[in-house]
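ZP: hey, is the adenosine-5'-diphosphate complex queued? I don't see it on the tracker
AM: it wasn't, my bad. submitting now with these inputs:
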Amino acid sequence: MALLQVKDIKKTFGDNEVLKGVSIEVNKGDVVSVLGPSGSGKTTLLRCINFLEKADGGRFVFDGREYDLSDISKRDIAAIRKKTGFVFQNYNLFANKTVIQNVTLGLTSARKIHSKEADAIAIDVLTKVGMESFKDYYPSQLSGGQQQRVAIARALATKPEILYFDEPTSALDPQLTAEVLEVMRNLASEGMTMIVVTHEMGFARDVSSHVIFMADGNIVEEGPAKEFFTAPKQARTKEFLRLTE
Ligand code: ADP
């Protein structure tokens, strides 16, 4: 059974129909890259399935339970969020908290985990992303790539069943991008389930198991990453791949 299913999700901003009935299915261990031209609705899709944006319609199946995306209770959202993690484009770290405090905050406040145990979890996840020696630094003392690795550690700390990434490297230069992608590659090899909105074609091709290609609020093509890159079927996909080569 799929870990996560989204059925016919719709979202309109004003008279701009941004998601026109998108359906996706993610199994445990899948790494799904969401590709497509700017403005095609990728970020909106991710934000709607993490309830940062309210969808106008659609069903959401997670962990065996089904919800109406346009009418889901705060309580259900909170319960689902406990099992998911989100990594933003611009890291969203608290500037006035140290690296370790950024990671432990969600554990001690929202989950009532004892601070000693939270520290141990934080060190563990910071080690995973190669940031343990920076635990007492403040975000402003770190590069963008290091901040994003801390943000990934923070998302990992709550042991999510699925991680969502919204263009996690688009604010970074190529070298810093590489170190973040390396962390994501390691997570993928450990079996972490991920949905990644990205412009990194190398990552999509080499690391993801599935690719979803969106344009104008619809999924134009999707499939196993290998197939998608070696034998794209739709003219729009072929054109996109040609332009991003
Ligand atoms: P992508 O991630 O593929 O670049 P987005 O999901 O960010 O696309 O945006 C899709 C469309 O939705 C764009 O036309 C964008 O201007 C519009 N949009 C996104 N968020 C909002 C918002 N909060 N209010 C109004 N329009 C929005």
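AM: back. The pocket of adenosine-5'-diphosphate is lined by residues 13, 16, 18, 36, 38-44 (CB under 6 Å).
ZP: great, adding it to the tracker
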